Amino acid sequence: MKEIIGRFEKLLWEESIPYESSAEELYQALEEADASGTWYWKDIDYTNQLKSFWPAAKHYERMHVILNGFGRSRLSEDGEYAKKMIGTLKYWLANDFQNPNWWHNQIGTPQGIGDVAIRMYSVLGIDTLGQVADLVSRGSMLKNKSISEEWTGANFM
Fold first, then answer.
1. Are 109 and 86 in contact (CB under 8 A)?
2. d(CA 92, CA 49)
3. For 109-128, how does the pLDDT look when each residue is reduced to its tens digit (9 = 90+)?
4. Within a 13 Å sphere around the CA of 74, how many CA atoms are in the beta-carbon half?
5. pTM, rounded to two decimals
6. Given CB 3.0 to 4.6 Å as the disulfide criterion, which of 21, 107, 108, 126 pairs with 25?
């Protein structure tokens, strides 16, 4: 399992992600939600249920930009940075944001949060990894019984 995670982690860290703001700007804009140590962005409307360009998805997109912009080593070398990034992931997990469009809930979010968690794997606790696994399993035909074989299209051929 560690070998598989290692391969995905390597690919994700090498990925380049174009975004409208730099990693530094996005990191500086993070706000602490409350004393629980969770972090979010004030300019994201997490309540907007737009089905196509869902604003809440910017949360994990920005996490990708920050993680890639600051690089792999900063997570292990800078405790404050790691704490803030873990808190940002926990904010999403605690709120479990959903969208009326099934694609976000069963494909977009599981992929986005899963990619973030793989990058952060070395600093995440077992409870957080369990929460991520639960969220990611929403896109699994094995775990999510609401997904039928009729949904697979070309992916199953």
1. no
2. 15
3. 999 999 999 999 999 999 99
4. 17
5. 0.85
6. 21
